[in-house]
Design brief:
With about 750 residues, this protein is an all-beta fold. Helix content is about 0%, strand content about 50%. It is built from 3 helices and 48 strands. The chain starts with about 40 loop residues before the first strand and ends with a strand.
Amino acid sequence: MMGATAPTDARGEVVEVHGSRHTAVGGGMMTHEDAAKSRSTVTAEFIAKQTPGLNPMQLIQYLPGVNTTSVDPLGINGGEMTMRGLNQSQIGFTLEGFPINDIGNYAVYPQEIVDSENLRMINVEQGSADLDSPHISATGGAVDMYLIDPTDHFGGTVDGTYGNYNSRRIFGRVNTGFIGNTNLKGFVSFSAADEHSWRGPGDQSKLHGETKWVNAWGNGNVISFSLIGNQSESTLFPSMSLANWKKYGAYYTYDAKWNPKAPDANYYQLHRNPFTNIYASAPSTFTLTDNLTLTETPYFWYGNGNGGGAYNESLTSQQWGAQSLTGSIGPYNASNTKSMLLYNPSNTQTYRPGAVTKLSLHTGINRLTVGYWFEYSKQLQTGPYSLVNMATGQPYDEYGGGPNMVLSNGMTAEYRDTLTQTRIHTMFIDDSLSLLHGRLTIEGGLKYAVVDRDGHNFLPDTSTGPYIHGSWQEPLPAVSIRYKINDENQLFASSTTNFRIPMNTSLYDSGTYKQGVGYTAKANADTKPEISISEEFGWRYQGPLLNSTLSYFHYNFTNRLYTQTLIDPSGAIYTRSINGGGSHADGVDFEVGTRPILYHLRPYFSAEYVNARTDSNVGAGNGDYVFSKGKFAPQTPKYQLAFHLDYDDGHLFGGFGLKYVARQYSTFNNDQSIPDYLTMDVNAGYRFKDVGPLKAPTLRLNLQNITNNHYLGFVHGTSANALPTTGVYGTKIAGASTSFDVAAPFFVGGTASVDF
């Protein structure tokens, strides 16, 4: 249940990306595992054969329970993910021990995290995060990423990729080796990527830099420091309703051309997504005595960016809460102008320092760990209306600066304007006992989380007032047991409790104000935290040729949190955060992989079956409820299957991957869904012999979605019902559709790489 700075490879799980040994199970998709719960891993050997620069969600798509959707081939525009039917805001993501999820809404933006060439491994914990994981939202498992360590000697690697949609990417890394006579070593890397949009106009680009430094001495003392910077600029892809998908298919896009005489809010330059991130972390371990170890992981998280949009705004009638005012934008609109097309980005700026401290006492067969996680974050979110260059159709400032709409009361018009401060105090204690000469391990622990949120909504006439305070305290026990029948077979069982506090957006009214209705996004400050209790029972076989894991899981949710689309009695459509009542699921995960068998082949197969049910009737927004109790949970595929076959003789290598995902409901009433889908990927390449200082020059070809299957891959949010229905109390309830993401199409890319 306790995490580590990074699991060590064992039983010959040596990852050699360019060497002659390629024996890792399943082509690098399984490792030796002793955790007393479900955990799956992809290693650098598998990652190195995929399209360079893929984001972490794309790299774990074959693992059991994982359902990922990328909206562009290289993953620069982001992605979505569910695991065992739970979405990414319920899954805790870490890199080098520090949290990656947004502190406000727990979203994950995988394109910003890490360059794939620098990843050593990705661990996926399908059922629960480790007790010491720094999360307040991981009710549905965790994804932990670890960077490679710098090499002992000077060297590096360079690769370049080109593909369709004019996709281009370069990457370079330099290792310093040991500096002088010290134990200090590091690497510095940089990448640049760009691709044209496959759906509609525009492009995606990003600049990314990483550095890691390690200083180790004595018996287990290590200080490391990692710094990651990312700057991305992309054109958003519009999500769509099921009706628009049936009408337009994948070609429902933003407009490519701008007409100054007829300004159009659907012009693609008004739907950009600029973002800048800086992550810093220093996970370090100190051996205080032979039996006492201190682990310290301070971190800092900074982000600033937005998603752009535009609206035709009235200047003669603007709402400032309940007040009807006029608006102006300096000298740029004539006095008789009644409306203007204005740019309206959703800006978010985050400052997030924190630290995780652990003290571990090892006494013979017992290990006792106590720890503390502290974090204090500030998140400012605004939505100003600013001027559009009518000659080009571009905003004068992508962040909404410059000339803004000012109301007649002197205030700047905003569709949202909030400051959220979150303080996290989490204490944990864990005790592990090893018996029967290490064959039996019993572990139990308790995490006690205290989270306080103070919010200030600068918009007027909100339902909750300008100042909001939320406080949550929750004890979270965990227990596990693992028994090794012999060197090859082991049984494990675990039971854990996790919680997720409501998103910060649930604290605030925002959007457009309508008389008698209020704001289009309504606060629900009384939302209770989501509580999950999960149990797992499993068996692992880890032999000389084959590894396999079979696990049964059950989870039960109380106060399941959803973002819901609703229609009130006046017919107005709005969104709000809700507690969807209880839900539960039972399921089975399975994965199996081999070391090289005939002709250097290494197959890998995974499967999942899950039966997830809603335990309550869900509110429809008009005082009535839909008959959702007992129906299948939204966003949850009942079946998933994955297969990957790897071939590698040291020079020639190749792979074939296949993924099947069953249909997914988008409503609690199960009256709307997206169909099942099947995708296939292929890779092939050749490593040449060393040429002087150039080591293992390599050429490879990657093909994604080789059948060019156009499909809807992800359900955004949920609604009570999509079709008109009669509620529990006999009320007629109108349908409210949600939206969906269109998945990336066929892609082919060629890569040349070399080490030195």
